[in-house]
Specification:
The chain has 189 residues and is mainly β. The chain has two helices and nine strands; from the N terminus they run H-H-E-E-E-E-E-E-E-E-E. The longest helix has 12 residues.
Amino acid sequence: MATVPLITPAMASLGGLVPHQGLLSTDELEQVALDIFDCTDVWGPLVHADPTRRRYELIYEDERMDAWVLSWMPGQGTGFHDHYISGVGIAVAAGRVREDLMVYGDEHLALHLRAGDSRQGGPGYIHRVAHESGEPAVTIHVYSPRLDWVGQYRLGEDGMVRREVSPGRNELKPQLMADGALHKVLERF
């Protein structure tokens, strides 16, 4: 059974950028993100300088992977999250972003990434990403399997950390539950 995309991707095929059929390793995801970074004609028209919210556009998807271009403006970020069962490869295409890694019992580890830098993470990789410079800063994200669900981490008033599940195509926001993003979503399962 073929899946119908919820969003029309910018590319019908990634051609020779994907090394094989089946799920991709984190090394392969990082390389595909870098290869897409080299295709400015693909991601360039999808960049948005929107000061009100972070923008993301689908480049490609099939049943095993998806690829996105994200535009970041000052003050925009994701909050700590994981990609559930998906691995990720990230390439910075323009400007700078900061990636924070959660460290148990200590301050988070801050990585300052600029155009041409890349990263990868496997399932369960917990991080947050935020704009650092450039208007907009631009990143390419490639996930395998396709990013259908994310876990967002929230610190409650009682000091407890909670993981909130959200559809992978929803914008990550600091107050997900208060915004009602999960209303009637999980009842389907």
